[in-house]
Amino acid sequence: MRYQVSGKQIDIGEALQAHVQSQIDAVVEKYSGRPTDALCVFSRDGSAFSCETVLHLSSGMTVQARANEHDIYAACDSAVAKMEKQLRRYKRRLKNHNKERTTPVELFGASSYILASSETEEETEPDTLQPVIVAEMETRIPTLSVGEAVMQMELHGAPVLVFRNEKQGSGVNVVYRRDDGNVGWIDPNTAG
């Protein structure tokens, strides 16, 4: 497994890198048999340290966690503990997912844009309804079943996930977390 341990304006020593690897190895050995790579990024968040971990599994699924603590090692331990909780919660589904899926999840490229906020100090009417594009980047859209998409959204801790529905081939679908706590699913292919 490949590890990438880095810091944003923080010097990461060998001892911390070894600690990250040993913590993630323990979790991976316990819950997931086939990871491909792990990314761990440390940064300062005021007086505390922030640790963000991302673990990519060979099945195409991704587990992500973030934690803030006053000690950098404690931040790492908290993030890995959150990741372990997610893997423990979905262990059965991940194992079933690996049995059913013989090939990795297909990923398709798409463009992703960041639009400028419309909040301005003046309450004037804009000249045009076209938003200002701040940044453009490449993103990947996975081909998943609806159940896998919900699991992936929850593993990421994301409020929304766009995916291609593997049952319908090329249809783009969306699952999202609703305000009432339930999960919503938008499927444009079944619209009448």
Automatic annotation (TrEMBL):
The keyword Coiled coil applies. The keyword Nucleotide-binding does not apply. Interacts with 100S ribosomes. Associates exclusively with 100S ribosomes, which are dimers of 70S ribosomes. It comes from Palleronia marisminoris. Keywords: Coiled coil, Cytoplasm, Translation regulation. Residues 73-100 form a coiled coil. This is Ribosome hibernation promoting factor. One of its GO terms (biological process) is negative regulation of translational elongation. One of its GO terms (cellular component) is cytosolic small ribosomal subunit. SUPFAM superfamilies: Ribosome binding protein Y (YfiA homologue). Its main location: cytoplasm. It is found in: Cytoplasm. One of its GO terms (molecular function) is ribosomal small subunit binding. Required for dimerization of active 70S ribosomes into 100S ribosomes in stationary phase; 100S ribosomes are translationally inactive and sometimes present during exponential growth. Gene3D superfamilies: Ribosome hibernation promotion factor-like, Sigma 54 modulation/S30EA ribosomal protein, C-terminal domain.
